Amino acid sequence: MRQPAGRSARRSGGERKPREERWAELIEVATQVFYEKGYDGASLQDIADRLGMLKGSLYYYIQSKEDLLFDVISAVHKTGLEVIRGKADVPGGPLDKLESVILGHVEHTCRNLVPTAVFLHELSALPVERRQEILGTEHAYQGVFRDLVEQGQAAGEVRADLDPRLATLSILGSTNWVYRWFRPGGTFTPEQIGSEMAEMAIRGIATDAALKARNA
What we know:
There is one protein chain. By secondary structure, the chain is mainly α. About 70% of the residues lie in helices and about 0% in strands. The N and C termini lie far apart (about 50 Å).
């Protein structure tokens, strides 16, 4: 099993690996502490106390608080990317796939409010090169949306006058903001929010012919 990036530089191949269950618990607890206190306000002692372990024991897993934030952010990004890539792998044309991806993104966000908040709030706390290591030079997450917009343009389903990158940023800008106002058990379900936001996004970028075909 590949080690999280924050650990790989510290532990040599000849040393025993940390228990993966304990590592998963550390990531979960660190995510919650970063959410509650913010990266700057949180300390490794806070995290160790929450885990019921000595602060020094954390260095078995990480080298620094920055390493831990890196692994937390990496885990959030990886999980989200897996979700939307899976949602893009559905039958239909580019707009059908994009609708599925938007639905998946919104529903995943609503069901993972704490990790999403930490990702969006604390990503900038990492050095630029470490952010790029997580996101990829081509911003893999954005790339799933952008590729579908470009495919839609090639298929005549998305307006040719739109810039795919700007269209993608517009969609993500509106859907990402859901984490600020969604409340579990509130008026709207994740499915309803995802469905309506997908419909609004598609209507904003689709050609007239594509919209007519979808409504036929």
